[in-house]
Amino acid sequence: MGKINKLLLLAGMSLLTLTACGQAEKTETTEGASEGSDTLVVYSPNSEGLINATIPAFEEKYGVKVELIQAGTGELFTKLESEKNAPVADVIFGGAYSQYAQSTELFEEYVPEENDQLVEAYQNTTGFYTPYTIDGSVIVVNPDLVGDISIEGYADLLNEELKGKIATADPANSSSAFAQLTNMLAAKGGYESDEAWEYVHELFTLVDGKISSSSSNVYKTVADGEMAVGLTYEDPAVKLLNDGANIEIIYPKEGTVFLPASVAVIKGAENMDNAKLFVDFVISEEIQNVLGTTTTNRPVRKDAETSENMKALADIETLEEDMEFVIENKDSIVKRFTDIFVDIESNR
C-alpha cells in the first residue's frame, strides 16, 4: 500500500472515531433530557394575571415545558397529600403561609440563592418554602359616600355616620376577612387583648349585620357606590384603581400586616432541578419587577419596581403577624369572633 493511501486510511479511521464519540455524547445528552429535564409540573391556585406574568417567561427562558394544574389552595394541598408517595407535581406555586407552615413534610428542603435579596421579614427561614409576593389588609373608601369623614385607620371607622355602610366578609369563612381581623387585633393591642376584642365588637356593631357573601363582593360594592367603606386586601383594590374605579386605598395608620404567598419544591419531585430553577426564577429581579409593574401583586424582593397605584412598602406603617400563634389559635380566634357577632345580632 502506498504512503498516501495509508495516510488516507488513517484519516478515515480517525474521522469515524470522532463521529462515534460525537454520537455517544449526543445520545447521553438526549437521555438526560428524556429523564424530565425539559418538563415541569406546577400546581397553582394563582390568578391568570400572575400565571401569565411568570409561566410563559419561564418556558421561553429555559426551554422547559410547564404542565399547569390549577385549582383552589385547599384542593391542591389535599392532592399533594394523597400523592406524597408518588408525586405528580414538581412545584406548588401560590397559597397562604398557613397552608405551607402546616405541610412542610410535603416539601423538599430548598433555599434559593438570592433569598437574601428578599425583604428580611419575608425571607425563606424555614428551609422549605419561599415567599414571592405579599398582600396586605387595606381599607377602601368611596370618596363620594364618605364625604368629609376622615378615614386614616381603624379608629376612624368607629363613627356612627358609617353604620350600615361598612362592607366586610365573614372572618369565619373568608381568608381575607380573617386576615383583616387578625390585622386589627394586632393593631389594637394583640390577639388576646380584651381592648382589641372590644374594638371588634364596636366595629361589627356598626357593620350592622351586613356581612358580604364573598370577599370580592366587599370591594365591588364600594366601587359601585353601594357601600362607603370596605375591609379588603391590596391586590384587588389596586386593580380597581388601575381600572379607573372611584375609590381610595387606606393603609391603616395603626399598621398594615402583609402576608406572603409562597412557592415550594415538592419532596421527591421527578423534575427536581427544574423545580428549584423555577423557585429561583420567581424571586429573580427580572420577574419581581414584572410582578410589581404589570400585575397587582406586590413583589417581595428588596427595591423591586412597583406601579404608580401601589404605594411603596417603605412609605407604609407595617405590622408583623405572629404567624405561629395565629396558626395554632385560628379556631379559638374564629370562635371568639363568632360569639361576638352572635351577641351583636341577638341584640340588634
UniProtKB/TrEMBL annotation:
This is Extracellular solute-binding protein. The keyword Coiled coil applies. It comes from the Bacteria. It holds the Pfam family SBP_bac_8. One of its GO terms (biological process) is thiamine transport. Residues 302-336 form a coiled coil. InterPro entries: Ferric-bd, SBP. GO terms for molecular function: thiamine binding; thiamine pyrophosphate binding. The keyword Calcium does not apply. Residues 1-22 form the signal peptide. Keywords: Coiled coil, Signal. GO terms for cellular component: outer membrane-bounded periplasmic space. PROSITE patterns: PROKAR_LIPOPROTEIN (PS51257).
